[in-house]
Structure formats: structure tokens, C-alpha cells
Amino acid sequence: xxxxxxxxxxxxxxxxxxxxxxxxxxxxxxxxxxxxxxxxxxxxxxxxxxxxxxxxxxxxxxxxxxxxxxxxxxxxxxxxxxxxxxxxxxxxxxxxxxxxxxxxxxxxxxxxxxxxxxxxxxxxxxxxxxxxxxxxxxxxxxxxxxxxxxxxxxxxxxxxxxxxxxxxxxxxxxxxxxxxxxxxxxxxxxxxxxxxxxxxxxxxxxxxxxxxxxxxxxxxxxxxxxxxxxxxxxxxxxxxxxxxxxxxxxxxxxxxxxxxxxxxxxxxxxxxxxxxxxxxxxxxxxxxxxxxxxxxxxxxxxxxxxxxxxxxxxxxxxxxxxxxxxxxxxxxxxxxxxxxxxxxxxxxxxxxxxxxxxxxxxxxxxxxxxxxxxxxxxxxxxxxxxxxxxxxxxxxxxxxxxxxxxxxxxxxxxxxxxxxxxxxxxxxxxxxxxxxxxxxxxxxxxxxxxxxxxxxxxxxxxxxxx
Amino acid sequence: xxxxxxxxxxxxxxxxxxxxxxxxxxxxxxxxxxxxxxxxxxxxxxxxxxxxxxxxxxxxxxxxxxxxxxxxxxxxxxxxxxxxxxxxxxxxxxxxxxxxxxxxxxxxxxxxxxxxxxxxxxxxxxxxxxxxxxxxxxxxxxxxxxxxxxxxxxxxxxxxxxxxxxxxxxxxxxxxxxxxxxxxxxxxxxxxxxxxxxxxxxxxxxxxxxxxxxxxxxxxxxxxxxxxxxxxxxxxxxxxxxxxxxxxxxxxxxxxxxxxxxxxxxxxxxxxxxxxxxxxxxxxxxxxxxxxxxxxxxxxxxxxxxxxxxxxxxxxxxxxxxxxxxxxxxxxxxxxxxxxxxxxxxxxxxxxxxxxxxxxxxxxxxxxxxxxxxxxxxxxxxxxxxxxxxxxxxxxxxxxxxxxxxxxxxxxxxxxxxxxxxxxxxxxxxxxxxxxxxxxxxxxxxxxxxxxxxxxxxxxxxxxxx
Lengths: 466, 466
Prior knowledge:
The structure is a homodimer. Chain A has helices at residues 8-15, 35-45, 65-71, 84-91, 106-113, 150-155, 207-221, 238-254, 267-274, 289-297, 306-310, 355-361, 409-417, 425-436, and strands at 4-5, 22-25, 51-55, 74-79, 99-101, 120-125, 127-128, 134-135, 158-163, 183-186, 232-234, 258-265, 278-286, 301-303, 324-327, 331-333, 338-339, 364-368, 372-373, 376-377, 379-380, 395-398, 401-404, 448-453, 459-464. Chain A is an alpha/beta fold. Chain A folds into two domains: 4-196, Glutaconate Coenzyme A-transferase; 199-442, Glutaconate Coenzyme A-transferase, CATH 3.40.1080.10.
């Protein structure tokens, strides 16, 4: 009565994996993840070809994947986010098949409705028993929530759990049940938990970011949405975290008790729970180790699946109940379309993650970003890539003012009444261009290197060879 | 942002329910359940016809269902257990379509693989939020685990949650997620929690039952299976509970720490957890209110789905990891086939529940039963209905001795060596017949009134009109 196999190689063999099939990974260990590289190295050694990787995210630590793309071990990538290490290789037109980008909500939706099929799922599990009951809450590589891995476990033909902490059966604190698992493999280490906390999850000290955060918190304060029952998501960028800190002060001051915070959870979000600003944290992913500890210990901090987080085809999801979400942008255009996939040269260095899901779901979606980065302007006439359509973006907050999407004149009036610096997005654009100059629009014109699927599965944009 | 509808009638209307469709229910409130009767009354009032009810169990409290069978509102029944109130009506040949009996593991398996389709699931939930995140752990009608309802929620076309305790969104302690729920209806009461504890969940004082329990505990003690990591299920009948008490004494005395106890959980099982005999309780159903409280409070007492409990098509399940299970019988024959569906006249008054699942899964399945009931002998030449095949039954324990299935000569030897009264099942049969007389075999010969599906979906037996 055990699914434990002596090696990853043996598990791959028993899984029946064949050339051309699709394998999947989750990214809960983020930049600390060893599993994707370990599996790809094993598959290369075994001589596999033409595999497609469906990974919920591909981080900088997955740079070794480039070698497997070069040799043809891997020839397809589907993901919700791609760091620049692999992104640059893709943007240079080195892959024959376009990358498929999805959203954190669209990915489980497509897996569940069958339009995205996984042959073999590899699930890095910080703790598992010999039958595959597994969790991210326990063990030396604890990463907290395994939210993104549920759809893979439930719908892949074969499921291989890879763990570095084998526990007695049955592991009662399981997140993913043995009913979905075929094989279990024990390895020395599935990752480096300190890699979970990347640079994007630390609070900023940049005065411009802090100013932006202060404006954003005030936009929420005066939006009419900040009242008991308020539901909120903030991202992991420095300015986003600073908004959380600002909001905390406002909520405590005004005695407002929100319902839930969600998204990638950080220590700052845990603060919001512990100080009573929110009733509960709904956690699809822990962004730092304090979040991991809170998920383990606090019964009001709950793991949720990616479908529960944001699936557009679930009968309902948490993203659609949000009051406000704070999001970043690498570019935004005067129609409020946001690009988080490519840099200003058009190189892939990101992805939607839950960006477009929460922008669509929240009553108020706020983009926080400085007006320039490396002297390149944030606001463009047309973004290089539409990650999130402008119709779902409500406010842009910069250090030089707050632009409200003209579809919300009431909000604009409300913010002006309390003295916030509301400005037209075109004026913001011109103001910056007077300082930094109007950039040459350098939209790549080459072959399509990636298709960006919106959360409903439709192609919202394509990314071209730089 | 709410799925809350003003009435059950409105929810039924919006669900698109039509004549001839299949609706489903779970039985976690057991004899205290109001939901099945409430829904059927509503559907009758709305003029529905030819509905099939797929209920995980039908209890005595569901006697009003007979009226709906008579009027043709309901013309099909699929269930894992049927009390005598409805059972007698069925056995008298009053239904045109045979009842389909499944097992607690076979039911979710068939729902998940599509061979058993549910159009509209009605889920009685002791607590729910307005989007359908719901649980059995909280509320005035708390019944604990909702294990049997997961497959219904996950696979029915439409899911209606009926609750008598509406909680703020999001209910963080949810068992069943909003992602599966279409509508929520609030009613005054979904049931009477005291009805959860039926007469079958109280400890016996009958000296014969206590003697049988003592033998059974000793069979386990000397089976070679009772060691650290031991996994165990006992039923809710008085003798079964007495085995738990006996086993507890042995385990404490010998310092043995088992892994998990499962099945319907009672206060006696909770005792086994709390005194350290077992690491964890895996709970598909709470059989009494102490179990409900333990599930709510003890992190080592875990709710599991019916698939995790016993599905034969899950990639693994807890039933298949059992060392020993204690089960009852209304009849057993000399080939060790067990009947738990019909009484000695052939009237339906029970069903497999998890009987045949756990008998198949456990290394040691022990039937405990007195040799006669109401002067009718337990052991027959041929059971009226094969609920559980003799090939999966290992030992019969009676007050007159212990019969070991001849497929296990080693076990027989082992028990004899420690002085236990091992006897041939034929001798037991004859000994009783010398006292009570040989019964006239009165196997019903009428039309088929029920088909008994084994856990793998095959028809293991049929039940005929009395």
C-alpha cells in the first residue's frame, strides 16, 4: 500500500509519458523552486522530445529551461507568467511554437473544461505521505498554499508528487488528496523556501512609490467602497504593499472591518488580518514565509484553489467579489489598457498572473506605477501588449496625479471633492513626455512568439519577435 | 453578488428542473433530516412527475417519500441504504422501476465517471454564505462532515444549497466551495441534529453483544495486524461500538498507536483519538454530536469526501488501507456472503453503505452478529441478497464461536493457538438449527424490485418482490 517509487526516473517511466505530451508544474516555491529544473533535466537525460510545459509561472530560477528549449526536449510553453530569463529567449524568436499565456483564473478554467489537457502533472509538495496526501504547510520547504496545483492534480491523466518530507500515512493536514495521485517520489530538496520571498515582496522605501501608495489608499478611502465587508487584493510590488500599510491605518482609524483579503499573501496582508482589519485571508499563494506560518496556524487564513480564487467559469469565485484591487503595470495606454507581459522594448518579462482576473472582478481596479522607469514613460499611446483591457481598469495612480477612467465620472467627481489630484490621462502622458521626450514607438513587428489568452480563453493579444 | 433566492420554489424554477430528471440528497442529518421531505413536498406542489431521487441514504424519517412514490412525483430511487419505511413499500412491488443500490464508495465513483448523472443536487448545509461556501461543522443543525455531498456538488449540473444558518461571505471554514454552487436558499430548519444519533449509535448492554465484541477485539489482537500504524473502522451498531471499547483497552495496555480510524465517527471513536490510540480520524460522516464537536475542534479529526473514503476508482482511498473493519449482518451464508439489504423475509431494511467497500479494502473484515434475531437464524445456506461477497469477508464472530473463512487457514491456526473458540461456520449453523429449528427458506420469487450494484458498478444481486 504505497505509491512511493525509488526515483523520479521510475515515476516518469511508470507514468507512460511520451514525446509530444504536456507536463505541468505549479510555482508555489517561486524563485526557490527546484522541481521544474529537476524534472526537465531528468526528462532530457531520458531522451524525451517535443514536450510542452504547462507551468502556472516560470521564474528567473527556471533559466535552465532555455537549454531544453534549444535541444528540443521542450518545444511548447503554456504559462501565466514568464520571467525575463526564459522570456528574452522566447522574444528573440527562438521557439517555433508560440508561448500560450493564460491568467491565474483562466488556467484552471481551461484545465477543467478540457481545452487545456495535462498528461502528467509534477507536484512539488513540501510534505506528503506515501499515497500522495500532500500539503505545502509543513516541512523544511514549506511554501504554504498549493492553490495553483489543484486543477493539475484533479485533471491530469497522471499525477506525480515530488516531496522532500515524507510523512506517515495518512497525512491528516493534506491539501491535495491521495485520490488524485498516482506516484510519490522522495528527493533531497524540492526547493529553497527563502526563494519564495522575491524582491517584489519587500516594502519599498522609494519616496515616489510611497507617494503613489498614499494616493492609492486615499482613492480607496474615498471611493465609497471602504466600509464593513470590504474585500481587497493587493499585489506584491513595493508600492502595492505600501498601499496595504496605508489602508490599514485608514481602516483602524475609521473602525472599518473588511471581509477578506486575497491574492498572493504577504506578511503585510497577515498584519491586516491580525490587527482586525479583515475577517479572513483567502490564500491561493503565499508570497513570503510569514504568510506560510500564518496559513499553518491561523484558522482564519485559508488555502483556496486557483478556481476558487479567480476562475471565470466557476459558478462563482473570490475575484468577482472584490471591492478593490491594487495592480502594477509596465505600460498603460490612454485607453487604460495595461501591459504586464513585456517591457518597453517588447521583451517578455512578466504575465497576467491574476492581473486581468481581478481587474475584471473588482469593483475598483487601481493601477499604481511611477510615470517613468529607466527614463521610459509608463503611459503610451498604445501598449505593446494588452494584458488587461482598459474597460476593466478604473484608476491609474502616479506620483503626478490620479487618472480616472472616463467610464467612471462619478468616481472622478468624488475624488476631486476631497482634494485628490485627479488629472486626465492624456495630460499625464504629455507632462511626462515634456520631460523624458516622446519615445520612438518600437512595437516589434516580427513573427508571433506568444499568444495572450484572456481569462475567458479568447486571444486578447499576441506578442511578436523583437 | 449573491446566489440567495427568496424561496426553495424559486431555486427549483431557476435550476431548470424538468419532469424525469434526477435530483440528489446527502444523508448527513440521518434521521433528523428535513431536506429530502421538504424538497419533495415542494416539487409535488409544483406538479413535477417522474423524478428520480439519488440519495446517499434513505432513513425512516423519509417515510413521506412513499406518498410521492404513490402519486408518481418520484418514480426512481438510487441509494446506498434504505430504511424499512420506504423499503417495505418497495419490497411489496409497488414501484415500476427497480431501486438501484450502490455503496458509499461506488456512488461517488459512478457520479464522477458519468455513469450516474445528477441534474439538480440539493445540499442541506448547516452553515452557508450567500455564495454557497458551506459546511456542516457550524450552526444550530451542525452535522459535522459533509463527505457524501462533495461528488453531488462537484458533478451535478445545478447545485442548490439549503441552509438554516446564513453566514457572512466568505465563510472561511467552508467544506464545499462556492465554485460548485448555483443557488442558496435559507429555510427555518434543515433538520433536528439530535436525529443524527440514532439508536444504532449507542453502546449495547446486551451480554451476548458484549461477549461477541470481546471475541472480536481478541481476533484483532491476535490477527497479527494490531501494531503501530494500525488502521481501523468500526460500524455504529452496539456490538461494533463495544469492539471499539475493547480494542481501546488492548491498545492502551500494549502501547500500540494506530494510524487512522474512519467510517461513520461516534463519540467512541473520538475516545480512541483523544486517548492516543490513533493519530487521526478520517471522517466521512459523524454519527453523533460528540463527533461533530470533535470535527470542529480537533485538528487531527478531518473531514474526507466519500471518494477519499472508499471510491474504487479513485487513485487510492482510505478503505483500501484499512487493517481491520467491524461490520454487521442480517444474514450470512456458509460461503461467508453477507446480506445487509433485506430482513429474513426479504423485505428491504438496509443497504451496503460502506459495508462491501470496507470489507473489500480491509486486510481483516470481521462480521459481528448474534446467531439468532427474533428466533430467526443468522447463518443460512444462501443469503437472500448478497450485499458483500464472501470472498471479502474474513471472520464471523458470534456468541457461540468464531468462524474463519477457509481462505485464511493461517488466521484460523493463530486464533486457535491463543485459545479462541474457532469453529466451522457449518457447525455454527447446525448448532443453531438444533435449537431454533431449520427455517423454511422463503426467498422471494416475484419481480425484481431492486438491483444491488457492487462498488465496481457490476450487479452483484437483485432483490425480488416479497
